């Protein structure tokens, strides 16, 4: 057999990462009947016109996300098996390999992040109309998720790895040294958003914190583990 060193721990990281993205969406929106519900227990603005309302069948969205993820997972495993038996470029199966940057799973992750950015932008618009003091916070979150969506495909974060490594000779868990500025940014963002998070109703506050923890574990956390392993 022709091996490709499929690096199952790294694939495991990617599997958990995509699973975390779908779980993030479910944790935030599984109990919402509309986008307006996502920002509190009462309408965001009064007398919302029907043509400005957005109703989302959350369970249907989540179910479709899981199906799409499962299809990609099966095709990823199929590619690994086919490659082990010598069929490395078998009818484009490689584009579903989780360890490949230019792939369908990468595009899928980017779309999920963009979907979150659009939802946050809509909430920000409603909050701005309602003259809410945290409307800017929602808008910044939308911008951050837009940047994350673009970066998921473009890989801008990888550009800074070599310059940082030259400065601090990063090895071990921080060998993929983009995690250092990412970690610093998350500390700054957390401090800046403390009052914003504290203002949310209890169940949404827990949802935001849990979603953030899951997402960061699937990105920065497992990136550091894979850096140590490889």
What does this structure look like?
This protein is an all-alpha fold and 230 residues long. It has one domain (8-229). Helix content is 66%, strand content 0%. It is built from eight helices and no strands. Helix 1 (8-29) packs antiparallel against helix 8 and helix 3 (104-129) runs antiparallel to helix 4.
Question: What are the salient characteristics of this protein?
Answer:
230 residues; mainly alpha; 8 helices
Order of helices and strands: HHHHHHHH
Shape: globular
Number of strands: 0
Strand content: under 5%
| Secondary-structure class | mainly alpha
Number of helices: 8
Average pLDDT for all residues = 78
The proportion of residues forming helix, as a percent range, comes to: 55-70%
**Tally of separate domains:** 1
Low-confidence stretches: 1-10, 30-48
Taking all Cα atoms into account, the compactness measure Rg is 20 Å
How is the main sheet built?
none
Distance between the termini: 23 Å
Task: Describe the protein's topology.
Elements: H1 8-29, H2 58-84, H3 104-129, H4 135-154, H5 161-168, H6 179-192, H7 194-199, H8 202-229
